[in-house]
Design brief:
The protein has 70 residues and is mostly beta strands. The protein contains no helices and 6 strands.
Protein backbone atom coordinates (compact mmCIF):
# COMPACT_ATOMS: atom_id res chain seq x y z
CA UNK A 1 0.00 0.00 0.00
CA UNK A 2 1.42 3.37 -1.00
CA UNK A 3 0.92 6.04 1.68
CA UNK A 4 2.99 9.01 0.44
CA UNK A 5 4.95 10.16 -2.61
CA UNK A 6 7.41 12.60 -1.00
CA UNK A 7 9.96 10.14 0.42
CA UNK A 8 13.46 9.79 -1.03
CA UNK A 9 15.04 6.36 -0.55
CA UNK A 10 12.94 5.13 2.36
CA UNK A 11 15.13 2.61 4.15
CA UNK A 12 13.43 1.39 7.31
CA UNK A 13 9.94 1.48 8.80
CA UNK A 14 8.73 1.20 12.39
CA UNK A 15 5.43 1.75 14.17
CA UNK A 16 5.57 4.22 17.08
CA UNK A 17 4.96 2.97 20.63
CA UNK A 18 1.47 4.49 20.74
CA UNK A 19 0.61 2.98 17.36
CA UNK A 20 -0.46 6.36 15.94
CA UNK A 21 2.35 6.85 13.45
CA UNK A 22 4.87 5.16 11.23
CA UNK A 23 8.50 6.27 11.36
CA UNK A 24 10.47 6.03 8.13
CA UNK A 25 14.24 6.29 7.78
CA UNK A 26 14.79 8.51 4.74
CA UNK A 27 18.38 7.81 3.76
CA UNK A 28 18.89 10.38 0.99
CA UNK A 29 17.79 13.32 3.16
CA UNK A 30 19.51 12.29 6.44
CA UNK A 31 16.27 12.30 8.43
CA UNK A 32 13.47 10.27 10.01
CA UNK A 33 9.98 11.07 8.80
CA UNK A 34 6.74 10.51 10.73
CA UNK A 35 3.50 9.57 9.01
CA UNK A 36 0.41 10.04 11.20
CA UNK A 37 -2.00 7.24 10.35
CA UNK A 38 -5.22 9.01 11.44
CA UNK A 39 -4.55 12.40 9.84
CA UNK A 40 -2.59 10.97 6.89
CA UNK A 41 0.00 13.74 7.33
CA UNK A 42 3.72 13.43 6.86
CA UNK A 43 6.16 15.42 8.99
CA UNK A 44 9.75 15.44 10.17
CA UNK A 45 10.54 13.40 13.30
CA UNK A 46 14.34 13.89 13.31
CA UNK A 47 16.50 15.78 10.81
CA UNK A 48 20.10 16.90 10.20
CA UNK A 49 21.43 13.53 11.29
CA UNK A 50 25.25 13.27 11.41
CA UNK A 51 25.08 10.00 9.48
CA UNK A 52 22.99 8.27 6.83
CA UNK A 53 20.02 6.57 8.56
CA UNK A 54 19.91 2.90 7.70
CA UNK A 55 16.81 1.29 9.22
CA UNK A 56 14.93 2.06 12.44
CA UNK A 57 13.67 -0.22 15.22
CA UNK A 58 11.95 0.27 18.56
CA UNK A 59 14.10 -0.46 21.58
CA UNK A 60 12.36 -3.31 23.46
CA UNK A 61 13.62 -1.99 26.82
CA UNK A 62 12.17 1.51 26.75
CA UNK A 63 10.50 4.06 24.52
CA UNK A 64 13.49 4.92 22.38
CA UNK A 65 14.35 4.02 18.80
CA UNK A 66 17.50 2.43 17.44
CA UNK A 67 18.68 3.94 14.17
CA UNK A 68 21.45 2.33 12.18
CA UNK A 69 23.95 4.75 10.68
CA UNK A 70 25.88 4.21 7.48
Amino acid sequence: VKLVDQLHFANGLELTYDGDSLLVAETSNYRIMQYNIASKKLGVFLEHMPCIPDNIKRNPNDQTYLIGCG
